[in-house]
Amino acid sequence: MKTLILYDSKYGTTERCAQHLAAQIKCDVDMQKIIPKKNYDLSDYQQIILGTPIYMGKPRKVFTEFINQHLDTLLTKRLHLYICGMQNADAGEELKNAYPEELSRHATHKAFFGGEFIFTKMNFFEKLIVKTVTKKAIQPSKFREAMMFAHSVMKKWRFLRRISSLTNKNKTL
Ligand SMILES: Cc1cc2nc3c(=O)[nH]c(=O)nc-3n(C[C@H](O)[C@H](O)[C@H](O)COP(=O)(O)O)c2cc1C
Question: Which atom of ligand 1 is closest in space to residue 122's alpha carbon?
Fold first, then answer.
């Protein structure tokens, strides 16, 4: 079964999660970052994994535009969804709101992978927002913790294992 991982990422965390997933799936997997107004041919792929970071409670415009544009096609694929974010407490709500309801219902697996704040890449306003929202002193990158968290979530949801076994079972497709 040919798999495509399509993702948005501003500072690279969601992209690294996509790379991590691709490395686990190993065979017949492509990755593409969503670029505004680009034409995507999804016809080659039977399985699609979508990933997006959450900013101010939702995915960025480029991601929602892509989803809306390809909704009908996505509903014909075996689908898995993930989000990256730092608001662990709101993970369930953010995951629910990040994708249209019918897409969410159609998806086999959904997961919150955690995230990281990369302060060296943020502009002044972003730092201010993050400081205000978290009400904590600036912390260094949390990527290691995020990936450990992602691992535990993946294990819990059997996300990777299920995707890998589905992929291997349908190798001949
Ligand atoms: C300005 C700003 C706003 C954010 N808002 C949210 C939010 O509402 N919910 C959340 O879970 N994470 C939020 N985050 C955390 C990002 O989702 C997190 O940094 C993520 O790892 C970014 O992924 P990316 O590098 O792939 O873009 C915010 C981060 C920034 C800088």
Answer: 31
